[in-house]
Write a structure and sequence with these properties.
Blueprint lengths: L2 E4 L27 E9 L3 E8 L7 E7 L2 E8 L5 E6 L4 E5 L9 H7 L1 E10 L3 E18 L2 E14 L4 E12 L4 E3 L2 E6 L2 E6 L2 E5 L15 H6 L8 E5 L2
Antiparallel strand pairs: 1-16, 2-3, 2-15, 3-4, 4-5, 5-6, 6-7, 7-8, 8-9, 9-10, 10-11, 11-12, 11-13, 13-14
């Protein structure tokens, strides 16, 4: 389970995983040595561009998320969908997986047994540590979105500081593609300061190389409703959960 946060932002060049400028306006350019393979237009005003890089270990892949204001989140996962590293942008904050997790996230176990529990640590620059616990389980249902068949999961997730302070927690449904080894957001409920917040970042369109809209940086769905729901104090709110 991967927590993606919605923040207003613009592209910067300080983050090594994304270029500041693209020769084509409105189109994302992955870093040198990396190749894009999938764009996902989702509800809640988000478009995600997926790419793989030659220098990474086999099975690793990246995702760059954009809202109306630009890029706001970049992450790298491994073949088991473990959260290897991520970047929240503006300001840039890097978070990495701690070594030797007590119960590593395992996409293979989810597929083979129907349930995967996880318990692992994360370290955020400049040293803040947290503990993530939860589970993913297959519901036995499948859905077809834009001609792609996905398996539905149920999840429960919490991230706490080591002293027990809650950072974020959520529960709901997601979708997976077994061959792509990816999670996609679904309808969920996040715990906010004023109680549970329902969000739905489900995918709406899958776009492949050569198709119109591939590697676009402009989200298409529910943007006016999403931006109007932002809190007036500018604090970040969740838009979905996806590895």
């Amino acid at each position: 389970m991967r927590a993606a946060l919605l923040i207003a932002s613009v592209v910067v060049g300080a983050v090594p995983v994304a270029r500041a400028q693209s020769p084509v306006p409105g189109q994302f350019e992955p870093p040198p040595g990396c190749t894009g393979w999938l764009t996902v237009q989702s509800r809640a005003c988000r478009v995600s561009n997926h790419y793989k890089c030659e220098g990474d270990p086999p099975g690793h892949q990246w995702r760059a998320d954009f809202d109306q204001e630009g890029i706001f989140f970049v992450s790298r996962i491994d073949a088991e969908t473990q959260w290897i590293e991520s970047y929240d942008l503006f300001p840039t904050v890097r978070q990495t997986l701690d070594p030797n997790p007590a119960d590593p996230a395992s996409f293979s176990e989810l597929l083979s047994t129907g349930t995967d529990t996880f318990r692992f640590g994360l370290t955020e620059d400049p040293g803040t540590r947290s503990l993530v616990t939860g589970f993913d389980t297959l519901t036995g249902r499948s859905v077809e979105i834009d001609g792609i068949t996905l398996l539905e999961t149920q999840f429960d997730f919490a991230e706490n500081l080591l002293d027990g302070t809650s950072l974020r927690s959520a529960r709901g449904n997601e979708y997976i593609h077994p061959e792509w080894r990816l999670f996609f957001s679904g309808p969920s409920e996040w715990d906010g300061p004023d109680g549970p917040v329902p969000v739905d970042g489900s995918p709406r369109e899958f776009i492949f190389p050569g198709e119109p809209g591939f590697f676009s940086t402009e989200p298409l769905f529910e943007c006016e409703a999403t931006m109007s729901s932002l809190p007036k104090d500018g604090k970040i709110i969740p838009v979905g959960a996806a590895r």
